Amino acid sequence: MLNPIIMALTATLGTWFVTALGAATVIFFKKINYKILNVMLGFAAGVMIAASFWSLLEPAIKWAETVLTIPAWLITTMGFLSGAIFIFISDKIVSRLHAKANENCEEQSTKLKRIIMLTVSITIHNIPEGLAVGVAFGALHKNYSRELLAAAISVAVGIGLQNFPEGAAVSIPLRREGYSRKKCFLLGQASGIVEPIAGVTGAFLVMHVEKILPFALSFAAGAMILVAVHELIPECQSNKDVHPYFSTMGIIAGFSAMMLLDVMLG
């Protein structure tokens, strides 16, 4: 088995690459196919919801019952809530940065602020997501199993899929501000660079402090559920009046695929 830190680094480099692909839409496409994008977002949400239970919470409960004296239900609940609260706080910081970017000032200064704030806000948002991936792979160090490997891969895939629109969310608005496609792409992909750093950090902590593993797995589950419910599902449902149930079937397909994989590998 590869070192979990190397696996976490590889996985988060992959999620960063997907961010870059999203940012590259500003170069290769004049118009985004939102029908396909919504299905991708729905599929990612379904994967993340299924993985949060079968691949993260269930192993966390079992591991807590084995290595901790604290009741398993308490530590997993605390971890789950902490993961959700961490993402919530990150989003609050993002909202404040966006508000500052929209303050009245000279036109050129406003454009500069928008570039900085937009990039920084998405970057901050990517930190807990990178941690979630790192934690999932770090869990393999002491308790390697196909179930936990599937969990780690599913976390990385889920985060990676939802990074695609995030990369586009940085590059496309900047293009509308009049900046070159090259500059828009570079700034868009740069927003994902923090994920490999956060991923390696998360894996290292879990590997060297074994007893935090149940909390860490629950933390990743809480982070995934909040991202799926608060961001991915509303976003993929944004055009449901035009294509009813189209993105919803993406959610069902993603959930079913992840559930099937977890049951087969478990």
Describe how the helices and strands are arranged.
Blueprint: H1 4-28, H2 34-67, H3 72-101, H4 107-138, H5 146-176, H6 181-190, H7 194-208, H8 213-236, H9 246-265
Helix pairs in contact: 1-4, 1-5, 1-6, 1-7, 2-3, 2-5, 2-8, 2-9, 3-4, 3-8, 4-5, 4-7, 4-8, 5-6, 5-9
How does this model look, in words?
- The chain is an all-alpha fold and 266 residues long.
- The chain has one domain.
- It has nine helices and no strands.
- It has helices at residues 4-28, 34-67, 72-101, 107-138, 146-176, 181-190, 194-208, 213-236, 246-265.
- Helix 2 runs antiparallel to helix 3 (72-101) and helix 2 (34-67) packs antiparallel against helix 5.
- The longest helix is centred in the first third of the chain and has 34 residues, at 34-67.
- The model is unreliable at 104-108 (pLDDT under 50).
Distance between the termini: 18 Å
Spell out the helices and strands N to C: HHHHHHHHH
Low-confidence segments, given as residue ranges, are 104-108
Q: Report Rg.
A: 19 Å
Question: What is the count of β-strands?
Answer: 0
Q: What is the helix content?
A: over 70%
Mean pLDDT: 77
**Shape, per Cα inertia axes:** globular
Largest sheet: none
Structural class: mainly alpha
Give the number of domains.
1
SS element count, helices: 9
Question: What are the defining features of this structure?
Answer:
266 residues; mainly alpha; 9 helices; 83% helix; 0% strand; globular
Short description:
The protein is mainly alpha-helical and 266 residues long. The protein contains 9 helices and no strands.
